[in-house]
Each structure stands twice: as C-alpha cells, then as structure tokens.
C-alpha cells in the first residue's frame, strides 16, 4: 500500500512499504553511467526507493539523501535522537512532557506563578521551574552557560539560534512602563545582546534571536502599529478609483482633511519623494514608506493628528530603538552572525514588520557573499499572515534585497484570543487548526516555488551568496517537515544549499531535529537563556504549545519510553541509527 507521504516524482521515485520491520542495508553507492535503476532502502524505516537510470548522478544523490531523510523521520523505530542520551535525561524529558499533558495545570500556570510571586513564594516556585521546564527548554541563565548545549548540538550537525529571552508587554492595568526606565532597561538588554552575538559567533553560521519589545520602549511599537493600521485605512479611503493608487490630488485631500491646509508644502515634498517614477501616482507601499518615522517631514504631519497616536517622545523612543538595532546589526555583520527578529503580539507586529523590512533593505543586499543578515518571522496562525508575507516578498523584489524569513505557526494563541475576547475585537487567529495548517503549507510552498523560479532563471543551483530567497521551516509538525522535503525533491532544491533551513525549539521534537542533523539538512535548535523570572513568559508558551500538540508529544513520549524500557531490561533495539 502506498504511503500517504510518498513522494510524487513521476518516473523518478517510487516508495513502497514493507509488511514488517527488518534491518536494512546502507544506501548503495551510485556509479556514474549505470544502466539499471538503482534501489536503496532507508536505514531505519520500511520504505524502499527506486531511481530511474536517466536521473543525473548529482541529482540522484540529492534525491536519495532526501528520501532517506524522509524515511527515517517517518519511522516509528527512529532512535537517532535518544540512542546517545543518558537515561537520566530521557526520564527527565518524559516527566516534563507528562506535566505538559495536564491541560488544567498548564492553563492555570500563569495565575499560579503570579500568586506565588505576590505571596512571597517565588523561591520554591522558581526552584521547581528551574529543575523541570527551565532545564528542558532553556540553555542556561547566561550565554556562557549555553556553550555546552551549543557544542553538543554541533556534534549532531545541528546549528544554533541563541536567544536572550527578554521581552516586554502591556501591564495588567493597560499602561506601559515609564519611558525613562524602559529605555534604561532596553540599553541593558542591547549590551547583553551584543554579548549574545559574540558568543554565537564561536559557532559558524549561527543565529541570534531578537525581540524588539526587549530592545525598546514597547509604547512606540504599539503606537506605531496603531498608526500603520490607520494609514492603511486612510489609503483605502482616499483611493477613489480603487485601483491601489493615489494621484497627487488624492494625497493632498488626505493631508488637508487630516492635518490641515497649512501642510500643503510638506505634502508636495513628500509626494515628490515618494513618486520615484514621476508618474503622478503612488501605491500603498510608497504611501506607507513616505510617511515613515524615519522621514522628518512625515513626523511633522503625524504629530498633528491625535488619531495617529504619536507624540514627540515616541519619535525619541523610535530613534533610540533604531540606534540599538543598527549597532547590533553592524556587530552581527562583522561577526558573521545572522539575526532572527521574532514575531510578537499582534498589537506590536505591524511595527515589527516595518522595522524588519527597513533593516533587511540595508543588511540583506543581494551581493553579500555571506548571505542575508536579517530574518523576519511570520506567524501563519494569523488571518493576515499570508497577505503580509506576499506583500513583503514583493517589497524585497522591488527594493532588490534578499527576502529572508522564518515561517512558524504561532506562539501567542492563548493570550491573543483572551485579549481579543476581553477587548471586543475580532479574533486575529484562524478559526480552525486546519486553516492554520493550510496557511503554513501555502507559505512554505510559495517560497519554495520562488526559489525554484530563481534557479530556472539562473539555470543553476543557487547558494547563499546569490539566492533572492532564504527561509526557515520552523515547525514541530512531522507532516510539515516531510511535505517540505518532498517539495524540495520535486523542485530539485538541495537540502544542503543553506537556502531552506529547518528549526525546532530546544527540548522539543528531537527526533525530527537529530534526523535532519544526521543528513546535514541545515537544521537549527532555538536555545533561549536568561534568569528564571525573565524567561517565565517563554516557558509558559512552551508548556501551552506542548499541551496543544498532544499527538506530537505522544510520539516523542513513546520513543522515550521505549528507549528507557530497552535499557532497563537490556533489550537489544530492533534497529540502530548509528
């Protein structure tokens, strides 16, 4: 019976399933010019593969490696992630996964932790967290403490995404931290991030994750998000012809109505700068860029209307944030470390996207031999994620910079839905998990197709120095990983090109990560660190995510349990992945 994950490569590949498990031979060596089809079998799965004689040698090798990777990921007897771990670590992971399966505990954990902190019981709660969830999902309290984890991952072909897990949010009463104290804290975080970049640089091709709320006063991100949303609505309102363009007269009406007749000279200056082709027309991208906070002329307009939510201190906070980011970007460029800008809550995200695109335009030049530095993140559980992804991809084409991104499903499901319900606005998250899966798979397929189109244009295999697209498939979903690998086979995109990367969080879905690492598929682990009180929000999200993806936890738990039993009773495993 053909497996539902079987690869659709007409005349090139056929996947059959055996009726029982058995030991399999290693991949047969291909000989250039062989006249007969070559057969090989996965080292740990019951999948068999056949390649047609006309398949080129190098392409056949790539297909065989990808097919073998799929086979091992699919195998229920895959021991790659567990076979070298001490039994104590296996038992600890199993206990943490079991705790994550208690939804009542996970759902109440934020309230319980908050109560304990207010009651002066932080010490015992933090002690418990440190020895369970923190030990499972974090690399340590400092960047230096993560070095052991980095080294262990490297030996298994796994790269690093180092993350100082500090973020800021709106307080319970709806207000935000005072400007002065928040900027002092952001300066401290920036210095710590510089140390993080230096530590990550010790391992080539590493990433460092950035949370913009930790590097700014979050007020500016919230207010700039509100402003961007208002500007988008204003463009639609004054786009009389509904053709996605504003004429000069339309823009002047916009300025007169919202800012007054005395701003005519500023308005004309802005329009002339935005109308690069001198057509007398601007589209929404040009309109938004024209009114950017980087433009001194637009500031004089935006501050005049309270509907745009901006004050003078917001401009100052924005400038300070951008100064911190530019310093970190320059350091990352010098150290050859890539920066991954994390997605955050929806009331910050449009501003984060805007900043990420500005930095990408500067640091992701197409002629950079080391590839792009800035990676943005798209949470595909959001209803507007597909539109934003495609819009920003088109912007990268327009501005001639590399579109580098990480595709995730999303990490703020519980808090986003709770806030939407409490504040009475539409739920920003897809109504069903199936819709989220569909959006995620569309995003991956869209970017893979763009890579394939570029390869056909250049008529050669692309690499990190010349590709217009580089992205990470960040997922704990086995089906998504296998589907991406299958599509890469279909499109002849090498898993070793460095253009399509894979990522999972530390302490989660090790079977997928270690298998991809074994086959050198460009896989990374997201390794957060920080003091216990600083990483609590991150740990709560990890527990919630694990409780949500119960099927994935079940598979991992079964693998752990089987390995533990085999070792205790000295049972020889049926299959070894050495």
UniProtKB/TrEMBL annotation:
The keyword Methyltransferase does not apply. It catalyses: L-proline + a quinone = (S)-1-pyrroline-5-carboxylate + a quinol + H(+). Transmembrane segments: none annotated. It comes from the Eukaryota. InterPro entries: EF-hand-dom_pair, EF_Hand_1_Ca_BS, EF_hand_dom, FAD-linked_oxidoreductase-like, Proline_DH_dom, Proline_oxidase. Its cofactor is FAD. One of its GO terms (cellular component) is mitochondrion. Gene3D superfamilies: 3.20.20.220, EF-hand. Residues 226-261, 262-297 form the EF-hand domain. The keyword Calcium applies. SMART domains: EFh (SM00054). Pfam families: Pro_dh. GO terms for biological process: L-proline catabolic process to L-glutamate. Keywords: Calcium, FAD, Flavoprotein, Oxidoreductase, Proline metabolism. GO terms for molecular function: calcium ion binding; FAD binding; proline dehydrogenase activity. It is an enzyme of class 1 (oxidoreductase). Its EC number is 1.5.5.2. Converts proline to delta-1-pyrroline-5-carboxylate. Belongs to the proline oxidase family. This is Proline dehydrogenase. It comes from Funneliformis mosseae.
